[in-house]
């Protein structure tokens, strides 16, 4: 069976890092029996340039027809002055919503070779392996009403709405519990239940799901401000964190830095059937775009997640992860990673991973 994979390079460093992911997929097809057809389509600013929309209809059609989607990154200063509805970020939010990708898995794993690259002391982060499960199609990102209105006194007021329905909380909790079952069976739900109504309901529903359906999971709750502090104080206390869209956005950047660089973090966004979109957690880094300086490893590790979750190829996923560990052990480092013995560019890093896969 041949898998249809849609590549969405996007903007900034997106095309460069997706090119390296493509190189890895090519080697897997050539040498390790993977069968896939790759297609490419524009999204974000590239979508706007091509079709006047950050998510062109043709791109969405291809995404629906694909078995899995790999995305680079969207956004850039060229598009900052556009109206909000056609900004590149809207393309990303729209594809998440259109494909029903409610469950965002963001693992933060420290490769031992990078212990010295973390902003925290090696003993605080060595062996770190946590998973953030972020709700991705609800909450304040999508809640209505939203907008900017003019008050009676003439000043403007901006507003957004944080909304979570029971069914949204139930399904993300189930996803997080199933992930925890494959790990240490510890789940920490993060909210702001001391202040927000929506968080009060979140906490109650999470508690109910775990009690009734996953009694073997050890559940704890944490307020988001404390969670941010605990992530930099003692991150190894966490196994799986489940949280809403906005808190998950913030905490996952924080967790990313623990691993040495946000350039190392992959993610998977899954729908109810387990179909997924895979993307690095980092953005489009317009300041280094086109300079062969971006770290392609988060995108390559996103390919590994795709192999595991959407293509039923867990063994190939492990090969890719081992190849990444191998090039780091060889001392190769892109500009975002400290240490190592050899500074390399985007392409050389991608080639080194491909070379290891070819050899093994
Ligand atoms: C992320 C990004 C996006 C988000 C932006 C680019 C819309 O920060 O995937 O974490 O906020 O979800
Ligand atoms: Mg983010």
Quick description:
The chain has 360 residues and is an alpha/beta fold.
Report on the architecture of this protein:
With 360 residues, the chain is α/β, with parallel strands linked by helices. The chain folds into two domains: 1-106 and 266-360, Isopropylmalate Dehydrogenase (3-Layer(aba) Sandwich), CATH 3.40.718.10; 129-257, Isopropylmalate Dehydrogenase (3-Layer(aba) Sandwich). Helices cover 42% and strands 20% of the residues. The protein is built from twelve helices and 14 strands. It has helices spanning 14-32, 45-51, 57-65, 88-98, 122-125, 166-181, 197-213, 224-233, 245-258, 297-309, 314-329, 346-359; strands at 3-10, 36-40, 68-73, 103-109, 129-135, 147-150, 156-159, 186-191, 218-223, 240-243, 266-270, 276-280, 332-333, 342-343. Strands 2-1-3-12-11-4-5-10-8-9 form a ten-stranded mixed β-sheet, with helices on both faces. Strand 1, helix 1 and strand 2 form a beta-alpha-beta unit. Helix 1 (14-32) packs across helix 10, helix 6 crosses helix 7 and helix 10 (297-309) packs antiparallel against helix 11. It is globular, with a radius of gyration of 20 Å. The site of magnesium ion has 2 residues, from helix 9.
């Amino acid at each position: 069976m041949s898998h249809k994979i849609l590549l969405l390079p996007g903007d900034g460093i997106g095309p460069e890092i997706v090119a390296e992911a493509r190189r890895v997929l090519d080697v897997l097809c050539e040498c390790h029996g993977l069968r896939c057809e790759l297609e490419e389509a524009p999204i974000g600013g590239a979508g706007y340039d091509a079709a006047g929309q950050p998510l062109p209809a043709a791109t969405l059609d291809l995404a629906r027809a694909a078995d899995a989607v790999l995305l680079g990154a969207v956004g850039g200063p060229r598009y900052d002055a556009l109206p909000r509805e056609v900004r590149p970020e809207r393309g990303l939010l729209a594809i998440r919503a259109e494909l029903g990708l409610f469950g965002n898995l963001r693992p933060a794993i420290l490769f031992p070779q990078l212990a010295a690259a973390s902003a925290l002391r090696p003993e605080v982060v060595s062996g770190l392996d946590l998973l953030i499960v972020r709700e991705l199609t609800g909450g304040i990102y999508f809640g209505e009403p939203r907008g900017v209105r003019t008050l009676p006194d003439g000043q403007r007021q901006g507003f957004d709405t944080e909304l979570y329905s029971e069914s949204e909380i139930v399904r993300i909790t189930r996803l997080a519990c199933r992930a925890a079952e494959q790990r240490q069976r510890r789940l920490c739900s993060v909210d702001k239940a001391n202040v927000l109504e929506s968080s009060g309901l979140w906490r109650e529903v999470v508690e109910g799901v775990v009690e009734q359906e996953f009694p073997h999971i050890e559940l704890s709750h944490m307020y988001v401000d404390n969670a941010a502090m605990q992530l930099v104080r003692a991150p190894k206390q966490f196994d799986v964190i489940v949280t809403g869209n906005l808190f998950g956005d913030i905490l996952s950047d924080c967790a990313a830095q623990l691993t040495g660089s946000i350039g190392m973090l992959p993610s998977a966004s899954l729908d109810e059937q387990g179909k997924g979109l895979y993307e690095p957690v980092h953005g489009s880094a317009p300041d280094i775009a086109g300079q062969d300086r971006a770290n392609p490893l988060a995108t390559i590790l996103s390919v590994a997640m795709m192999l595991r979750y959407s293509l039923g190829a867990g063994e190939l996923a492990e090969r890719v992860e081992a190849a990444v560990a191998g090039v780091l052990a060889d001392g190769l480092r892109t500009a975002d990673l400290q240490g190592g013995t050899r500074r390399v560019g985007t392409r050389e890093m991608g080639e080194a991973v491909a070379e290891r896969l070819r050899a093994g």
